[in-house]
Structure formats: C-alpha cells, structure tokens
Amino acid sequence: MYRVFEALDELVTIVEEARGLPMTASCVVPRGDVLDLLDDVRDAIPGEVDDAQDVLDHRDQMINEARATAEKTLSDSEASATRQVAEARAEAQETVASAREQAEATVSGAQAEANRRVEDATAAAEAIMARVQADADRTIQSGQDQHDNLVSRGHGEAERLVASGRATYERAIAEGRAEQARLVSQSEVVQAAHVESARILDAAHADVDRLRAECDSYVDGKLAGLEETLTKTLRTVGRGRTSLRSGSTADYRD
C-alpha cells in the first residue's frame, strides 16, 4: 500500500510544479508520467486485496493443520486407556479452538487494514478530482470574464469608430457647404462645387461603412477564438465528470 501513497504524492507534486497556462488557472502536465502513476495506483490496490486473501487462505491452512494434528493424536491414542483418549481429545479440541481464534484475529486485523488503506486511497483520489474540478471551474469563469471584456471593448471601439466617422462626415458636409456658399455667385464653378461636395459625402459614407465593417470583423474574430477555447474547456470538464462517475481513467486529449 506504500506505493499507492507514494504515487499519489508524486501526482500532487507534478500538478503543483506544472507550468501554468498564460491568463488561466490551468496547467500543462506530462500525460505519460501521470498515466504511469495512475497505473501504479490501480495495480497496487489489487495487490493489497490479494495480501488479505493470502491471510484468509493461511487461516484455512492453520485450521486444517490443527485438525490433522488432532486426528493424528486421536488415532495414535486409540490403544491407550480411556483417560488418555479423553485427555488427547481435550488437547486436540483446545488446539483447534486456539488456532481458530488466532486465525480469526489475524483475518479481522488484515481486513480492517485493507479497508482503511482502500478508504485512504479513495479519499486521496477524490481530493485530486476536486482540485481538477475547481481548476476547470476557474478556467470557465476566466473565459467568461475574457468574453465579457472583449465584448465591452468591441462595443466601445465600434462606438468610437462610428463617432469618428460621423464627425468626419459632418466636417466634410460643413466644408462642402462652405465651399458651395463661397462659389454660389460664380456660375462657372457651381457645377464643380456640387461634384466635389457629392464626392466628399460619398467618401465620408464609405469611411463610416469601412470602419463599422472592420469593427464588426474584429469583434467577431475575438468572439470566435473565445468560443473555441470555451468549447474545448467544456469538453474536457465533461470527460472528467463522466470519468469520475464511471470510475475509469479520463482521457483529456482533444
């Protein structure tokens, strides 16, 4: 059972010393080392159960040896007097009773020790799973916070770009109107003023549309990346919970 606790301590050390992922509470652990340690735990627990079964088998062997000794004693003493036969029978019964009590005490102690060690290993495994669940919850919360922050920044950037485009548009309108007013008395340049004013208005509208499209594309790209990260995280958490309920080893590979 010592190997079980040793493997669990190594698992805790690997998780504590693992390299963390930037901007998250998650970490990167060597999958091969972790799986090897989990295999050691899985292999060690049945070994302890086998040891308990060996104790049970040894109890039966002791009882059989005591019974064989009693029967031999009774067989050898048949030719003796009635008193010798009674004494031999009493001694044989006492030997069997003593051997039975000793075997039962040994089995009881071994069973209690095996149960205690299994409970300790189960508690340690549940503690590790609880820490993994807490890390997953923190990762999901962090992703949600990043999502909210990106959305807020995206809206702010969109409003700023729209406001800038509107100001550019209004400034162009004012400049066009001023130019038109200056040239209104000049019949030969009135047509050119109208053309230039229309061009400036079209350019302002195009700038506003371009800025709005760039803002929408930026926000959409950020949200798509965050959605992919959250999807992977939720799949990992789902596999961990399924593994916890079924008692099997979780596969965290994407």
How would you concisely characterize the structure shown here?
The protein has helices spanning 2-17, 31-76, 82-183, 190-246, and strands spanning 19-20, 27-28. With 254 residues, the protein is mainly α. The protein has one domain (2-246).
Q: Topology, pairings included?
A:
Layout: H1 2-17, E1 19-20, E2 27-28, H2 31-76, H3 82-183, H4 190-246
Antiparallel strand pairs: 1-2
Helix pairs in contact: 1-2, 1-3, 2-3, 3-4
Q: What would you report as the Rg, rounded to the nearest angstrom?
A: 42 Å
Number of domains: 1
The major pleated sheet works out as:
2 strands, antiparallel
Uncertain spans, ≥5 residues at pLDDT below 50? none
Name the structural class. Answer: mainly alpha
What portion of the residues fall into strands of 2 or more residues? under 5%
Number of strands: 2
Task: Return the average pLDDT rounded to an integer.
Answer: 76
Note the gap between the termini: 34 Å
Please state the overall shape, judged from the principal axes of the Cα atoms.
rod-shaped
- Discrete helix count: 4
Helix content: over 70%
Main sheet strand line-up:
1-2
Order of helices and strands: HEEHHH
Organism: Nakamurella antarctica
Biased composition (Basic and acidic residues): 145-156
Protein name: DivIVA domain-containing protein
Region (Disordered): 69-88, 136-156
